[in-house]
Amino acid sequence: xxxxxxxxxxxxxxxxxxxxxxxxxxxxxxxxxxxxxxxxxxxxxxxxxxxxxxxxxxxxxxxxxxxxxxxxxxxxxxxxxxxxxxxxxxxxxxxxxxxxxxxxxxxxxxxxxxxxxxxxxxxxxxxxxxxxxxxxxxxxxxxxxxxxxxxxxxxxxxxxxxxxxxxxxxxxxxxxxxxxxxxxxxxxxxxxxxxxxxxxxxxxxxxxxxxxxxxxxxxxxxxxxxxxxxxxxxxxxxxxxxxxxxxxxxxxxxxxxxxxxxxxxxxxxxxxxxxxxxxxxxxxxxxxxxxxxxxxxxxxxxxxxxxxxxxxxxxxxxxxxxxxxxxxxxxxxxxxxxxxxxxxxxxxxxxxxxxxxxxxxxxxxxxxxxxxxxxxxxxxxxxxxxxxxxxxxxxxxxxxxxxxxxxxxxxxxxxxxxxxxxxxxxxxxxxxxxxxxxxxxxxxxxxxxxxxxxxxxxxxxxxxxxxxxxxx
Length: 472
What we know:
By secondary structure, the chain is mainly α. It folds into two domains: 1-198, Serine Threonine Protein Phosphatase 5, Tetratricopeptide repeat (Alpha Horseshoe), CATH 1.25.40.890; 228-281 and 303-420, Alpha Horseshoe (Serine Threonine Protein Phosphatase 5, Tetratricopeptide repeat). It contains 20 helices and eight strands. It has helices at 2-16, 22-26, 42-54, 59-71, 83-90, 98-120, 134-157, 170-173, 180-197, 210-223, 229-240, 283-287, 300-309, 312-318, 358-372, 377-390, 401-416, 422-428, 432-437, 462-467; strands at 76-79, 160-161, 177-178, 264-268, 295-298, 319-322, 339-342, 353-357. Helix 7 (134-157) runs antiparallel to helix 9, helix 15 (358-372) packs antiparallel against helix 16 and helix 16 (377-390) runs parallel beside helix 17 (401-416). The two termini are 33 Å apart.
């Protein structure tokens, strides 16, 4: 799998490199399909789409999304000894940070693969492809994948180049950054096309369906520079009415025995590195257990938040404590005799990971109705309470629009910890600077993150700036 990832990365370098030798530009563009050789049949179209899905099984989607969503935020410390992770944790990452560079590369590689589907599948003349509308389904799934990648890019970097076709010239390779509102507009166009094209159900929750697209549209409209709460409410309702239901046991969501359950909307499908597809999730190996200092250590602040809420079920399902006193490493935040590890990824490399699940969307609907009117908190309350009741908690005491905002923020934090959402919630609500600069260690000492507006976004990777001066 890693070999495939590196080859994909190499293709990205070719796609974005600034090399301008005439012999390179004279060659057949690599987005063109050689007639009679590849991708001329319905089976070839399916292979193209499988490549777009398969490229998601890279370090971004099986690891870095948690670093970016939870370590950047107040849910986890970097842990381990990886300098790139530690810089992200401490808000000192610069343009040479290894994670920043590889995440940019992986996301644009995913976009390249989606673009290849969108460019080539319309030209395949095999009539089998139009039976049952399969051609449009494939195009819709690829459009949703592209939108999802840009959704990550725009939230992490802000303005980014919009690459909507495989580059065929030096000008295409050096596109300037598009403003944030234009990136969001393209994301919404792709998702609206996808919603009209994709299936309602699929063989597993790893495939884009209408539920996935409705959920993404709800999240995108909530995250845009000018949130459209009516649209958030509309698309959240479509998800909630789409046949999903909260799974009975919160802990059971993460046991490894309930993959593709009733609550799951979009879920990474792993079968282990030795399995049929070779798709494994290496998060369990780096965040669970002892023997060496693990990555993504739960914060004192998150554990205190669980305790203050009396949230025993979600705390135990999310965090486990072990005695690591005999280990040969040290830690700045926790005593080794009672050291916390993430517990949501507790099994071997066959553990699936949720991209979106229903509780996320229920709480997002609660946020929408709370924002739509001053009295919306009363409509939000039963939604929040529905999520709380599953884990044995009483109703939220929030009784105003302002208090409900904070109640929903807290509920999302405790419900979705270590699933890659927290940092993006803090960004879209404008609370990131306030929350992060108030962070303290277990002894009450300020962690002095000194977050400013300039530190809320990743820097453009230096290797990309070298290839594309228009990205500055």
